[in-house]
From TrEMBL, chain A:
Membrane among keywords: yes
Transmembrane region(s): 6-29, 41-59, 71-100, 112-132, 144-165, 185-203, 223-243, 277-298
InterPro entries for the chain: Electron_transfer_protein, NrfD-like
GO cellular component: plasma membrane
Gene3D superfamilies tied to this protein: Formate dehydrogenase/DMSO reductase domain
PANTHER family: PROTEIN NRFD
Sequence similarity: Belongs to the NrfD family.
Primary location: membrane
Location(s), subcellular: Cell membrane
Keywords associated with the record: Cell membrane, Membrane, Transmembrane, Transmembrane helix
Membrane topology of the entry: Multi-pass membrane protein
Pfam families xref list: NrfD
Protein name per UniProt: Formate-dependent nitrite reductase, membrane component NrfD
From TrEMBL, chain B:
Record domain 4Fe-4S ferredoxin-type: where: 4-34, 49-80, 81-110
Coiled-coil segments on the chain, per record: none
Keywords: 4Fe-4S, Iron, Iron-sulfur, Metal-binding
Signal peptide residue numbers: none
One Pfam family cited in the UniProt record for this chain: Fer4_11
Protein name as catalogued: Fe-S-cluster-containing dehydrogenase component
Gene Ontology molecular function, alphabetical: 4 iron, 4 sulfur cluster binding; metal ion binding
Organism: Mesobacillus persicus
InterPro entries according to UniProt: 4Fe4S_Fe-S-bd, 4Fe4S_Fe_S_CS, ET_IronSulfur_Cluster-Binding
PANTHER family: PROTEIN NRFC, PROTEIN NRFC HOMOLOG
Length: 299, 178
């Protein structure tokens, strides 16, 4: 039943995360020019994690691994989503690697390249959903909402990874970028809604789809789903993020409070827990989608 | 140019697996890999029930989903409508395995290359029958040109009103009498 397993789940996760981290850094670069650490972290981890994802993909493609020149053919079939994705990833990697290099050399980033990077980051994030979404054989995947879910989750994990690494380097800044936190909270809430919608509608399309959904919500993967994805990956970070934002609002009313908030004395643990939980949830989501892939019956 | 297809009479199939074994010999496959799978299911309502045995292999779809998704064009269709694999182009990404509705594709554990039933294209080119057809002990299989109304396969399909497994999924070219 599982043709694509953990390696591909990790790849889908890392591709979305990498695109999300890139977009996070581009957003922070404009909205908070002073938050240099967050911008740099996003720009550095993005091409590195995409590279790790690609390595996983190469390892999983056994015949190509044994004869690497064959990977050239990946660019040839334009009717395959995988070929389209190969182009997206190639352009994205070139832009992301260039921007990371410029950041490393402390040089100015070419704006055009950054816009190209932003476009292809979005393309990579949504392609991971298209890749499995076009597979008619698996009704759980063959739904229009899946690519949207993957984009939302990709952005969310991208923000989480960027914030997590940044928190170790500059914990004040992590608490300074309020609008990133607000976007993150909205994405997490949207993800809950998207998962609910996808499962509700998909479970009613046919027998195989219903079987997939019941495997996830009440069957063999229900613990992973309810505890891992819903509990740890979504509800926990939603609660912590919401409480943090609420308390910030209170602090903002007086200047001393603002300083306390900015000093981050209360917050690094919360950040670490929240962002790690989001990352775990993002991986579990990809894993569940692959694990519960029940093919249609051909009788 | 022919449009090769197959007719399988599940009422004649006794489930002896001879076609699978000869296919494994023909394609030099290890025991754990086969291009033909057997599916058994009970049909009808008690007491009028029948144990139906359905041999399933690559259906050589005209709009093959495996060919559409294959990023390297390793999967292609010949002029005679046989879906084949160019083993030197396959990277083993398994997208075709995922996309095939019939579970007809398997991976070679040594090379990582994906393969499947080839309708014994080399034998057919020599004017012979695919090995599963010539070996079938109950004549449950007929191979031939679907475009030729006088071919044995076309006549059998008409006579038994044979249908593809899932005509709604695409234009597959193995017709089953059930």
């Amino acid at each position: 039943m599982m043709v694509w397993g953990t390696i591909i789940a990790a790849y889908l996760f890392l591709a979305g995360l990498s695109a999300g981290a890139f977009l996070t850094s581009s957003y922070v670069a404009r909205k908070y020019p002073e938050a240099t650490i967050i911008r740099k972290v996003g720009r550095f981890i993005s091409p590195v994690l995409m590279g790790v994802g690609l390595l996983l993909l190469i390892v999983d493609a056994e015949a190509g691994l044994k004869d690497p020149l064959r990977f050239i053919y990946l660019f040839t079939n334009f009717s395959s989503v995988m070929t389209i994705g190969t182009y997206f990833i190639s352009f994205f990697m070139m832009a992301a690697a260039y921007i990371a290099l410029m950041e490393f050399l402390k040089k100015d980033v070419n704006k055009i390249v950054e816009y190209i990077g932003i476009f292809f980051a979005g393309a990579v994030a949504i392609y991971t959903g298209f890749l499995i979404g076009v597979v008619q054989t698996v009704p759980l995947w063959n739904t229009a909402i899946l690519p949207i879910l993957f984009v939302v989750s990709g952005l969310s994990t991208g923000i989480a990874a960027t914030m997590l690494v940044s928190a170790f380097i500059d914990k004040k800044m992590v608490h300074h970028v309020i609008s990133v936190k607000k976007i993150h909270l909205s994405l997490l809430v949207a993800e809950v809604f998207l998962i609910f919608t996808m499962f509700l509608i998909t479970s009613s399309t046919n027998v195989a789809a219903a079987e997939s959904i019941s495997m996830i919500v009440s069957g063999q993967y229900s613990m992973l789903f309810w505890v891992g994805l819903i509990g740890v990956g979504l509800v926990l970070p939603i609660v912590i993020e919401a409480l943090e934002l609420l308390s910030k609002k209170k602090f903002e009313h007086d200047p001393v409070g603002l300083q306390v908030a900015a000093s981050g004395s209360h917050g690094i643990a919360a950040t670490l827990i929240t962002e790690s939980a989001v990352l775990a949830g993002g991986f579990i989501l990809r894993m569940l989608v692959l694990l519960a892939a029940v093919p249609i019956s051909f009788f | 140019m022919a449009r090769y297809g197959m007719f399988i009479d599940t009422k004649k199939c006794v489930g002896c697996y001879a076609c699978r074994v000869t296919c494994q010999m023909q394609n030099e496959l290890p025991v754990e890999i086969s291009y033909i799978h057997f599916h058994e299911q009970e049909t009808g309502i008690f007491p009028n029930v029948r144990n139906e045995i359905i041999p399933v292999q690559c259906q050589h779809c005209e709009d093959a989903p495996c060919e559409t998704v294959c990023p390297t064009k390793a999967t292609y269709t010949t002029e005679d409508g046989i879906v084949l694999m160019d083993e030197d182009k396959c990277i083993g990404c398994k997208y075709c395995v995922v996309a095939c509705p019939y579970g007809a594709r398997t991976q070679d554990h040594h090379t990582g290359v994906i393969n499947k039933c080839r309708f014994c294209a080399d034998l057919v080119a020599e004017g012979k029958q695919p090995s599963c057809v010539s070996t079938c002990i109950s004549d449950a299989r007929i191979f031939g040109d679907l475009d030729d109304p006088n071919s044995e396969v076309s006549k059998a399909i008409v006579k038994h009103n044979a249908q593809p497994l899932r005509p709604d999924l695409g234009k597959s070219k193995i017709y089953y009498a059930r």
